[in-house]
UniProtKB/TrEMBL annotation:
Residue ranges of every copy of the IspG TIM-barrel domain listed in the record: 14-251
Gene: ispG
Protein name: 4-hydroxy-3-methylbut-2-en-1-yl diphosphate synthase (flavodoxin)
Positions of the IspG C-terminal domain: 266-354
Database matches in Gene3D superfamilies: Dihydropteroate synthase-like, Sulfite Reductase Hemoprotein, domain 1
Presence of keyword 4Fe-4S: yes
UniProt keyword annotation of DNA damage present: no
EC primary class: oxidoreductase
Species name: Buchnera aphidicola (Brachycaudus cardui)
Listed EC numbers: 1.17.7.3
């Protein structure tokens, strides 16, 4: 997919979260997490269904108490996407989540408890063949590790992860993935680099508590892209203080830009200037909204004039090049006879894109 950089992925073991393969060159999966009250099963189900619609491969659900665990049982029956039960503090909630159908557990080494509690969790998941994520976080390291290093460091995050990996190894359990997240991009990236050299388990990557939609997107994009370019990462989550659907969209955008995995319409659009022959910004924004349901990968260029429009159109699946009153349309690099009326360009372009997607899908059959 990427002609200019051959990304050699880190070798890792294979596990499955539900039916989704993780590691050993499986497609890098995109995750998100619900931000509803889990006890409100209706709202949580609706949010998960929306995440499914936008291509989430896996969804994590927080289980902070027994009431939430009971609600998780209801939620699990109403959705098809694999669910990860997010567990902190009380190991018994992990046991409940497994009983109620969790496809994976996330436990936090900083608060899940002692070896005995971990042993109980391992025994439970082994019987059901359910994987675990060891989710280390810079904001909740074990007290002794934090005392040793004073502040969260890459070494501290990796030591926490390795401690629990050794617990798992001693219990002959290898169905797990690992994350070492921090809100500081450089701290997280270095921790993942160090961990990736020590273990063969799949790595779940992300920048935790990245921030608002704008700021968090920038942080996550830089951190995750740095890791992916080095071949590190088997599954990812963009952590934002925003609608979880945005996390999924941005996750796919990062993978698409790096030429790793594509989903939906990839718009190439000019920033506009006085030369534009139609309203490019309005056109691309409305088309992006109208075509959110599309999952078939397709490149579409929307350029307001002929300066770069022709060149971009020739390398896109579909290309629109601005002209006076009417604009030229290109398909697979070939200029078409019929032009689009600039006054109706959004409606006409949507039709063209959907027609092309239909052709692409028919050829796949």
């Amino acid at each position: 997919m990427n002609k200019y950089k051959n990304i050699s992925r880190r070798k890792s073991d294979r596990i499955y979260v539900g039916t989704v393969p993780i590691g050993n060159n499986a497609p890098i999966s995109v995750q998100s997490m619900t931000n509803t009250r889990t006890t409100n099963s209706f709202q949580t189900i609706q949010q998960i269904l929306e995440l499914q619609k936008f291509g989430a491969d896996i969804v994590r659900v927080s289980i902070p108490n027994l009431e939430a665990a009971e609600s998780f049982k209801v939620i699990k029956k109403k959705v098809r996407v694999p669910l990860i039960a997010d567990i902190h503090f009380d190991y018994r909630l992990a046991l409940k989540a497994v009983k109620y159908g969790a496809d994976c557990l996330r436990i936090n080494p900083g608060n899940i408890g002692n070896k005995k509690r971990i042993s109980e969790i391992i025994k439970c998941v082994k019987d059901k063949n359910i994987p675990i994520r060891i989710g280390v976080n810079a904001g909740s390291l074990e007290k002794d590790i934090l005392k040793k290093y004073s502040i969260p460091t890459p070494e501290a995050l990796v030591e926490s992860a390795m401690r629990h990996i050794e617990y798992f190894d001693a219990l002959n359990f290898n169905q797990f993935k690992v994350s070492v997240k921090a809100s500081n991009v450089f701290l997280a990236v270095e921790a993942y680099r160090m961990l990736g050299k020590k273990v063969t388990q799949p790595l779940h990557i992300g920048i935790t508590e990245a921030g608002s939609l704008r700021n968090g997107t920038v942080k996550s994009s830089i951190g995750i892209a740095l890791l992916l370019l080095e071949g590190i990462g088997d599954t990812l989550r963009i952590s934002l203080a925003a609608d979880p659907v945005e996390e999924v969209k941005i996750g796919y955008d990062i993978l698409q830009v790096l030429g790793i995995r594509s989903r939906g319409v990839n718009f190439i659009a000019c920033p506009t200037c006085s030369r534009q022959e139609f309203d490019v910004i309005k056109t691309v924004n409305q088309l992006e909204q109208k075509l959110e349901d599309v999952s078939t990968p397709i490149d579409v260029s929307i350029i307001g004039c002929i300066v770069n429009g022709i060149g971009e159109a020739k390398i896109a699946t579909l290309g629109l090049t601005g002209g006076c009153k009417k604009s030229a349309i290109y398909e697979d690099g070939v200029r078409q006879k019929n032009k689009l009326n600039n006054e109706k360009i959004i409606e006409q372009m949507e039709i063209k894109i959907r027609e092309k997607i239909k052709k692409i899908n028919e050829l796949k059959k």
